Amino acid sequence: MKFLPIVARELRMAARRRSTYFLRTGAAFGLIILGTWMFLMLHREAPRQVASVMFGLLAGCASMFCLLSGVQSTSDCISREKREGTLGLLFLTDLKGYDVVLGKLVASSIHGLYSVFAIVPMLAIPLLLGGVAPGEFWRMALVAINTLFFSLTIGICTSALSSKARQAAAATFLSLVVLAGLLPLLGLWISYMSKGAVNGSWLYLTSPGFAFAYAFDALYRMQAWYYWGSMAVVHGIAWAALVLACVITPRVWKERPASVAKLRFRENIAQYAYGSSLNRAEFRHRLLNVNPFYWLAARARWKPAAVWFGLALIGCGWVWGRIKFKEEWLSSPLYVVTGLVLIMLIKGWFASECGRQLGDERQGGTLELLLSTPLTVRDILRGQTLALQRQFLGPTVCIVVILMVLMIAGLSDVTRDQGVWFAVWIGSILLLPADLAAIYWVGIWQGITAKNPARAANGTVLRILVLPWILYAGCMLITALASMQGNHEPDWPFFVGLWLFLSVAADLGFGIAARYQILTSFREAATQPYRGPLSSLKDIFTAR
After folding, report:
1. pLDDT band at 536 (very low <50, low <70, confident <90, very high)
2. Could you say which DSSP state residue 198 is in?
3. N or C: which end of the chain has fewer CB within 10 A?
4. At a CB cut-off of 8 Å and minimum separation 6, what does 327 contact?
5. Nearest to 459 by CA among 431, 433, 438, 434
């Protein structure tokens, strides 16, 4: 038997995929565009300062991509096999746990690894401007590769422990947040509360961000051991997660009867999520009289509470900052950051929920059963709309009110360019319902055509929220190049109008197209299996 046969097979399969080549080319091209844009925006500054800013921005984007790769790439690689019942078939052969885990790790991470190998050489471009030392480049390259390995192994470990895609992705993200963010904050809090008597800096070492900060010469020259200590700890955690996944995987594929404690725990979770049997019966009767799919999509009563809880956390953080920093906290930049956080939260959360119910029903084969009942497509869409309104209408109205308050407070704090800020605030408030409407149609269409709900959410966010900003950055790049040739630079109404035009165009274009596809081809798309990778521009824009 060959050594690591699944790894060899997955590498051969990845070598034949067009996406393997397109993704690494696209990652390098995107980083080049970002670096060029930054260079043109700062072309009036000193070369060393431009190089420093470019290097920090490009390295930060690369490190963040590596940190979140596990959520997208490996969090569902083993749990999917368990859901489909194929994991046990692998262990009927001579394969060991490490064969399966390493094979899945290679299969799921090849795209991320190739992207990083394409991105890292781009970090050397600021070296030509003289503002970055060679040691900073090599240390930052090690941070990116180490962070990628750390994220991927955390993802595959949580995948071995989970059976649902959403549960695995959430557990991976939570694990990364705890290790990379909460533990360093805990160490900072310990040091602050003890007034230096207890050193909590050892908790910083679990965060790849700590190694990222100490990769720069300014900090590395003072305490180099912090950099290498963080690199060693993060690398050790990654190997521990990989070994744990190899040990767990051969033991989790069997379906064993649940213990009494586990059954009681599941019952408590179900009562928390859906209420007691009496409450469930009353809730079911009330919603079924309105719309059957409304009841199916809105059964989990914790979903609306979760959105309000997210807003409450942001509010608590804002109140803490107000108490801690007093009048210094009330500033126009902070108002803008708060508004951006609220807008990104509601749009991203809404995109993740729009097509999730339909995607889950389609994967489970129950969507075809629903379509065989007297329910029409419009009944299903109406039920989904009511469920989303129940979850997001109140928080959205609350966010609009908060944005208006922040706008008034920010304008009173600004002494120059009030017209610019007023236009930006009003545009952001008006775009919120427009984006949500487009996300609704695109999200539903993605939910019944994408491979899984995670890809459906990513496709929706890419089309409605990311693509307009990419086009806007391209237009800004062209404008900067034209101004360097001596042409007159447009005034602020041009840039604000361009932003609004591109955003509305994306909403109308993708939203109308998705609505037409849903109303005309819903049944056909719901009964077809996943079509595989997209192969043309038409497929990319219609997602059929």
Report:
1. very low
2. S
3. N
4. none
5. 438
